[in-house]
Amino acid sequence: MNDPIMITWLNGPDVKALELTNDEILGAVEMGLQAQGLGKTVIEPRVHLIPDPAFNGHFNVLRGYIESINLAGVKVVGDFVDNYKQNLPSEMALLNLFDPRTGKPVAVLDAAGITDMRTGAVTALGAKYLAKKESKVLGHIGARGTAYWNVRLLDHLFDFDEIRIHSRRPESRQAFADKLEQALGKSVIITDDWESCVRGADIVVEASRLNQPEPLLKTEWIKPGALVVPYGTMSAVELSLTDIMDKMVVDDWGQCKGGMFGSLRAHVEAGKLSKQTLHAELGQIVAGAKAGRENDRETILFWHRGLSLSDIALGHAMLEKAKTRGLGQQLRYA
Length: 334
What we know:
The chain is of the alpha/beta class. It is 32% helix and 25% strand. The protein has ten helices and 15 strands. It has an eight-stranded parallel beta sheet with strand order 9-8-7-10-11-14-12-13. A seven-stranded mixed beta sheet has the order 2-3-4-5-6-1-15. A hairpin with a 7-residue loop joins β2 and β3. It holds the Pfam family OCD_Mu_crystall. This is Ornithine cyclodeaminase.
């Protein structure tokens, strides 16, 4: 008789109880990026499911494989803009991990937290390699789930003198600022408009939640030498933004060059961001195959669409820590 096949289930409370540190999150995601840069991964462009346009949301399906940790994975994440009206997070997700040699299921994890953490980690790691080392002013647009980890992990690396935030709804701005101040132990500046948040900042992150493209972030506000990280689902930047960049970096060109969503979709379609104008994928920089920032004068753009590899790497780190803490449930598959 065959032995039963068991899978590990980590739910939301389990993930929270793991208490992953900033360095554990960054380390796991950086490992995945390095593996990508070394050609030791497989990543497929995400696909989308829109159940009904009236629902104002869609599902993303991300797929990948990392050789060094012997895992393949598929994450399904919903992105529904109006969920706040029902007191639900805009993004909820499940990560499924498999043995890549047999297809045997290994684990299922609540990936809402993973999505937020790994997105913030990729933002922060992009800044680690692409921002000025002495960056002291952060301008952050957006207050959705990923925003907290953007700011937390960026501040962990840079210890900002000034953190400015803005979002569409005043109540979300205040709640976001309160959460950040409690977590970081420093004051946060709430701005009433995009310009006062962004102008003159060393690092600019645009994670807005627009219903349709609208150029709210003006190119003239970006100071020379800044790093700009736009990753909203809908474009909030001017078409001229790429014209001032000395380098343009993405997380995965295969995902960035196609699909219906993304903050720089119009720039790809206009030929302003192309394989020819692209400097590198971040993984190539992490692996040492391409240069990151080379001087303080460079103005650099980093666009990330979200990597299945980061989900898988972080999911693996969570499974390993869960073993040491006795967290999670074993469920019988067969």
